[in-house]
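Example complex used in Figure S2.
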Amino acid sequence: MNAIRSIWRAAPVVWRPTSFNCTMRPLSTAPVTIQKPTEQVPTTIELDKLYKRVELEMRGIDPAVLLSYSWFCVAAASHLGIEVTKSWALRKAEKERHTLLRAVHIYKKHRVQYEIRTYFRFVHLQRLTGSTCDTYLEYIERNLPEGCALKVTKIECQKLPEHITPPDNE
Amino acid sequence: MSIFIRNYKPGPLATLYKANIWRLNSTTAESSVKKDEDEEEFRVLDILKKRDKQQKRIVRRTDIQPDRADRMTENQNWGNVWPGPKTFHPSSVPLPLRQGYVPAGQAPPAKKANAELMKIPNFLHLTPPVIKSQCESLKQFCTEWPTLLNSEEAIEKHYPVEVITSDYCHASPSIRNPLARVVTLRIKLSTLDLDKHARDKFIRLVGDRYDSSTDLVTITADRCPMRAQNLDYVNYLLTACYHEAWNVEEWEKDKTEDDMEYYNWDNNASKKSVVNWYLAKRNEQRDLTEDEYRSYDISVIPNAEGYKSAVSSLMNDGESEETVNNYGKAVRKLLGLPEKMVV
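Predicted assembly (513 residues):
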């Protein structure tokens, strides 16, 4: 058995050079054919989008955290050279109230009220290019603290489509 | 105690206390003896293990390190100490923080073992120098806004179409928010190339999506499940409305004066009567057709221009004190009557 194994082990050493060459030949020709299409430069250049205005709406359960987060957003925008037009908060929280009976089955006059408060903060940015906007939003969204939500409204400005021209009847 | 014993006289009451007193004496004597003869201690059965409890001591490690916060230098790089978002840890923050609700007059609890500080999300990883350095490295992915588009008018002139979309980022079981599919397209009607008929038809086609006070057409689509589909649909709607507005159907020629969306003085009876009055004044007898009435040049009639604008504003803007007064003045001027006397 050992003898067979030793032959088995030794065998590849003998045939390897020939088999290697055989496999290399088709491979060596293949990259030449692949290289040609990669040399072609893509004809259409993807243009950057233009965002006239970007509106950030933050909502959360803790106004102090929202304030810190809006400071962070404004600081990041100023370092990246983005214009911040407005930054404000609602004066009062939005309250969602539920009124329940204090005792489950009786005493209808005695109720208890629970409420969920949601605090809001808004930041308006203007004149961002597509790549700036993507970078900035990625950075901000990755640093969103716990218990906060972010809504980003992007107002993109585009050219009038070419087909929107008066039809020539004559 | 010895004095008490010396003066002690046996009596009827003393027999009651006898046992107690002697027991007391015996215990004090025992303790003093114990101190002297330490080696030969009388072993007492200690069932409640009172002696062991007293002798227990807390074993303190001598090699314990001082707090990390105390060993920090002032010129350290804080970004390396606190690189990412983390729950508050008192040994890593060299600040004398206090947080918590206490009755008036007391100091809030310090930072160690303070659950209040651990509950709230902190921004210790986003200090101003850290934000600045991170933004410096992010700046390579940003591009400048075109310098020529430096005003609202310039943007509106070259890029008149506004496409409004929303992205949502929040904690929820799904990262997808169905509201993200909504797409709104907004365009100023004056930027579209439309003639008089097409403009009128376009406004009728879009209905309440046109706001006459701001001259904006707003088309919102949320009927498709994906944003790209809604975007295509919005563009389709704009294109379809635009080209339909340019179509003139056969039945549109049946439009009468009652169907007009605004009052045109040239097409109305008011002009006819003014022209007739003018011709009669000049003793000319002419029978004019409808088209001739319409194309009659009113600039030859003195003060007719003012009368035209007064009547048009009265009919188009509605009856108000100002328009009625203007109308009265215009009529007086046209007919050559004196000004109204103010008494």
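Strands of chain B lie at 161-169, 183-188, 210-211, 216-221. The longest strand of chain B covers residues 161-169.
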